[in-house]
Each structure stands twice: as structure tokens, then as C-alpha cells.
Amino acid sequence: MKVAVFSTKPYDREFLTQANQIKRADHELRFLEPRLSIETAALVHDATAVCGFVNDVLDRPVLRMLAAGGIRLVALRCAGFNNVDLVAARELGITVARVPAYSPEAVAEHTVALMLSLNRNIHRAYARVREGNFALDGLLGFDLKGRTIGIVGTGRIGICVARIMTGFGCKVLGADPRHAAEFTGLGGRYTHMDELLSRSDIITLHCPLTPETRHLIDAEAIGAMKQGVMIINTGRGALVETRALIRGLKSGKIGHVGLDVYEEESDLFFENLSEQIIQDDIFARLLTFPNVLITGHQAFFTREALTAIAETTIGNITQFERAGQPTHPVSVEMLA
Length: 336
Ligand code: NAI
Prior knowledge:
Blueprint: E1 2-5, H1 10-22, E2 28-31, E3 49-52, H2 60-68, E4 73-76, H3 86-91, E5 95-97, H4 104-119, H5 122-130, E6 148-152, H6 156-167, E7 171-175, H7 181-185, E8 189-190, H8 193-199, E9 202-205, H9 219-223, E10 229-233, H10 242-251, E11 254-259, H11 281-287, E12 292-294, H12 303-323, E13 329-330
Parallel strand pairs: 1-2, 1-3, 3-4, 4-5, 6-7, 6-9, 7-8, 9-10, 10-11, 11-12
Antiparallel strand pairs: 5-13
Bound molecules: 1,4-dihydronicotinamide adenine dinucleotide (NAI).
């Protein structure tokens, strides 16, 4: 099958080419560097499938253009599908596939890396020591043992985080409309959002971005949190209202913030902008706080995860070609 692969980086090319060979799939992969948008959709020449990533735009106008150009499959090489208009895709006869699980451990371990770095000020210590400054003032941390971790979304990634944090001797609270026996088996306790917000020392977000979860962490939610709370978001940027986060940081209500995702990340992340002036004032303000640590959507970025993503993506395309249905379809019903 001819596949137009958008937002291609050298590592995507390497892992997808390898998976195409290993799986003897023989798909014709056309690697395109630009992000998919209404301006770039025309780059799809006589392909049947489009392969996209988290910041590719797959809204109704783009999908309409793709359908008119003969695209029948959108194979996402990520788990989240909030960037796709699934209703439009269905109406236009475009099947959508994703990679539901590649390495939940990769994201969970990065989540914990952010917690530990912030908790012990590793990001500041690293810079200080390189400057020959070995003073400890300002680097005071706190023990994780005995602390309460609030996990919003106890799916694959949330459960991995719970497993790691119980290893540190933390108490784990979970909020999720679906209760997983594995979570309670680990010693986690389900509660409602209000109690999770008011009792947790660290709140970490692992639910999908849906109309319901958009700005889940807003001024009101932050108001209900403990003084000095740590907030970690490796889910999706828009789960958090960034302006409210900044107000919480300025007032001292929020003690630490660790982000791997950001509401307006599509104009920033995955590119080297070090020679440019950042135009996003809200993001620039976030960077000024000493107790904020941001990574550029790299939680998924391990060798193991990239191998699994590429193999599942190639598998989805092959299965669609053979049987008319990918191995891991995304349907409108999944939004409910
Ligand atoms: P999953 O589908 O296994 O788990 C998501 C859980 O969230 C489910 O148990 C679901 O019931 C729950 N949920 C849905 N609505 C909720 C709500 N309103 N409140 C609380 N819980 C709710 O998904 P998985 O694999 O654990 O991934 C979670 C999210 O992490 C993805 O949707 C994606 O946005 C993000 N992600 C980020 C990555 C990164 O590199 N930063 C990489 C992979 C995923």
C-alpha cells in the first residue's frame, strides 16, 4: 500500500523502514517532513493511507481533502486520537487506526523521572554543579515515602505509575470512571476527583483528552488542591488550563509542575527552535519558574516504544490492506 508519512523525523524513517522489512510488508512509505494540515494535505499523491502523529491536524477540512485524494486509512503512530475528527472520518469513509499500547512503561518512567527531578531539584543541581556552585541552599527536597499520589486515569500508563510509586512507599489514589482490578490489587484506592485533588501531594494526569477532560485542571481544581502540590502532565496539554497553572505557581499554591505536553505545543515541540525567539508568551512565562520542568513530548521516546509503534503501525496498514479493517481501529464510540 502507498503510505504518505507526515511529520517524519530521522528516527521515524529508521524505525518504520525497519518494521516494514522485518514484517515483510512491502508498503511504499513516502516520508514527508511537514506536519499534516490544510496547507500540506495536497502533498499526498495517489497514496491510499496517511500515517500521522500527535500534532498532525486531521479535522474535517483536512479529512475531506484526503478523502477526495483517495485516502481510505489514517494510521496514527500514537495512542491518543484527539487530533482526529472521528465523526467526519466515518462520514467520509476513512478508517482510523492507532497504536493503543506500545510501552506504557516508557511514559510512566518518564513521568516518575519528572517527579524525582522536581522533588530533589535535579534540574537545578545539574546546572549549579557545572558552574562550580556546590551550595545546597534552595535544593531542599522531600521524601516520597508516605506521600499521596493522585492518578487521574488508571489505564495502561496510570497503572504503571501506580506500580512504580507503591514501590517508593507512596499511597496511591485513583480517579477513573472505569475501575481496574489491577490498580486496587497494587494497593491503589479509587476515589472521586474532589478527594483526589484535596488529598494528593502529587497529581499526575493519564486520562485521554476528550471534550469532557479538556481543562480538567483549571482554577477551580487548583483551588481545591493542597498547598504546595506537585502537578505532572504527560497526558495531553489541554488537560490543563495553562493560565490557571501560572496563577497557581505565582501564588505559591502549586509547588512544582512537570510537563511533557503543552496546550499549544504544535507550534513548538519536535523542532529545533534554539535560534528563534519564542513567540508564545504563556510558554515563555512557564520557562521562567525554577520549580517548573518541561520536556518536549518525549515520554514515549525509547527504543522499545519506537520499535513497537512502528511494528504496530505497519501491522495496522497490512491488516487494512488484507481484510479492510486495521488491527487497532479507532471508532466514534470510543469517545463516549
Ligand atoms: P488508556 O486508554 O489505557 O487509559 C486511559 C484511562 O483514562 C482509562 O482507564 C479511562 O477510563 C480513563 N479516563 C477517561 N476519562 C476519564 C476522566 N474523565 N477522568 C479520569 N479518568 C478517565 O490510555 P493510556 O495508554 O494509559 O494513555 C493515556 C494517555 O496518555 C493517552 O490518551 C495519551 O493522551 C497520553 N500519552 C502520552 C504520551 C507521551 O509521550 N507524553 C505517550 C502515550 C500516551
